[in-house]
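Example 3.
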Amino acid sequence: MQVLATETVKQLPAAILPRLVKLFSTTSPELLENIQQAATDNNLRALAEAAHKLKGSCLSLGAEQMADICKDLQEKGEANDATDIHTKIRELKQLYPITLSALQAL
Amino acid sequence: MRIFSNLRLLQLIDSALLLMLLSVIAMLLWFSLNNLSLRAQQNQHEATLAMQKTYIAVQQQMKLEELLDKQRQAFDALDDEFFRFARNPNSDRSNLPLIHELSDNLKQRSQDLLQEWPEKAELQLKVQFEEFTGVMTSLIDELESLSPGHWQQLARDAHDTARHAQSLVEKLATIDDQVGFQVMTMIQHSIENNTANTYQLSSQLQMIKYQALVSTIFIIAGLLGSRFYFSSHFKQLIQTARAAQALAEEAVKTKTRFLATMSHEIRTPMNGVIGMTRLLMNTPLSKKQSEFVESIHLSGEHLLTVINDVLDFSKIEAGKLDLKHEPLELRACIEDVFNLLSSKALEKNLDLAYAVDPSISLFIEGDVARLRQILTNLIGNAIKFTEQGEVSVLVKPLEIIDQCYQLKFEIIDTGYGIPADRLESIFESFSQADNVLTQKGEGTGLGLSISRRLVEMMQGRIWAESTLGSGSCFHFTIKAQQAQGKLKPFLYPDIPEIIGKRILIVENNPANYQALQDFCSGWGAITQACSSSSEAISLLAADQQYDIGLVDSRLPNESALEFGRYVRSRYSLQEFPLILIAPPNDPHPKEIVRELFNLYLTKPITRSRLFDSLMTVLGELYLLTTRLEQPRLKLAERLPLSILLAEDNPINQIVASSILDEMSYQVEVVENGREAIEALRKKPFDVIFMDMQMPEVDGLTATRIIRKELPADRQPVIIAMTANAMESDKDACLAAGMNDYISKPILPEAIEAALERCCLVPAQNNKDKYASLSH
């Protein structure tokens, strides 16, 4: 699985891409923060919701690896399963800047 | 300010105390030493006086002794003479004169002695002495008056008197001794006095020593006390200052947080406003209305830039902006900016060109987004302020040390220029405030200020030069390391298909000319550059052979077509392919261009486009050109529908609405299920794209409500959009009454397919539709 599925991005109208990337860069930190907060509070329901939201953004922009982790987090949140969530969140946070720069480099 | 004045006051008090203590000790020392020196002087004087007295006394004693000696001698002489005279029977009056003389001598000596008689000493002795001397001296007179027979008796008497006188003189010698004793006593007294004085002096010195010690101890104690007092006070003051600083820092943090939050909060609805405006622009509007909408759109976009600028600015101010260090492709970065701004340049028919010195490696280390921001700003400004001519960007290395570059960027325009007195101030924050541009709503005045800060963060500086009437040049330098990055195909040097190809460049813009030459020779081509068509024609006339010609459409005197005609008069399109480098709005008639030239290369010239064009004419990428087929009829033209989009994620809103927009659909966007139901109550929609998870009312609930509440003739087709790619979700969607289901990422094909599935065959029953989903 790649950080960025360029074929997905290429399907998008080229004109909106810079705006989407910018939007991604402005909305994602907050979502990541929400995910972290929910995990810290052990609020798994909120974790699932926040992860779902970030997953939506990631999928649209072809950020497959991030989307995948978000999906796991969402499923774990919905299943009330708190194992490994912190590891996943750390991975997610590490992936974010890489993904963003990959998007910006397009 | 209060702390500061408090500190000043404390300092003053401290200094005053110190000065006072020092002056007290100085005064004490002064008086003591003064007293001491006076005493010493007095002592000295007394000693001198005593010495003088001693000297005089010694002198007196010596004189007295001498006189006594003489007296004694005179007595003895007179006595002897008398005796001799009396005993000698032959004595007669002839001997008398000698006795007279001796007697006179005695009288004289006696008078001398009496004169020197120590005052107040032995007065009785003095009287007796006078008496005896009188007797002795009167003897001679008696002798003269006596007969020689009585002389012997008289001599005996004289002898007796002389003996008495002798004893008197002996007594006098004791007086002399007394005087000597007196002198001794005086000397001793003087010594004693001196010793006493010295002792006094030493004790006084001792006292001064103690006094000095005590005052020093006092001063030290005073100073320690004051230091202690002040240091505790200072501690208090410092604590106050620290608290104030913490408060200020917290305030800055709060400000930054506030700005960031506000910017975000404003941006989200602004995106909505702009998105809606864009949709509104696609609806039938009167000329007046579309002008208004256009202006709303422009203002919205402007507001967004302002917010972004303010956010950036506050980030930089708060030191929150970190530059990335990633490989960035410098040329691509400039090309990106050109692509972004080309439409604006096009409106004014401006040429955009750039040249990067070939010695600069393809990749440098840096923050591509921020470098792009600086370039966008400067190039954007250049375009704004230039009415005709060109904007060129040159990048040169100032120095290269160990793969570390200092790069200099020059952004040169041919605009009106900037007055000399403003060249400095334009980099200040909000310096554009009084400028026409802000009034036109085109700038925030923060762009250059942000650029300056970014440049400074990249260890460089930025400045501007300008000549009124002929243009401006913005310079900036940055420090960057050479880096390794992943090469795109056109970034490789020496492309096999291009190596050795002879390329004729006909271009009069120096920057473009340079860029074309750099790119082509980088790929291994042999280039020949001409700045005019006549020069190129004369080369061809001299039977020079070329594989490809690159011709600028804006050659002077419209000579591009002329050159094309000349080439075609000698070579076919296959023999000598020509590429016309033209802006998108090239004025030349397309039919003629197609006859003469093989290909358009759209300005601005970028390496990727030039590469594609060369490969195309070289036959290698021929297939690529076939991709530019006639566009199919837009879906909305075949299948007109009113569409509602219910989606809370702003990215997905934009993606979905722009995909639908591409299909020429006008989309209304709502944020959640509740808004979707409200919108549907106001007016009917043919299709709703419904996100499953939304705040307030989610997609499934909204669908259930719609299916339940709305009359049959207003029931829309509901297509679920979700990122949950699971069968159970699909089932849940269909169970809730949705017609179809697409999973994210939302792709144009999926939307088109879903719309075609659901809307082209309206008579299908639900069961069949559901069945079609399980692919």
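The radius of gyration of chain B is 65 Å. The first strand of chain B starts at residue 326 and ends at 329.
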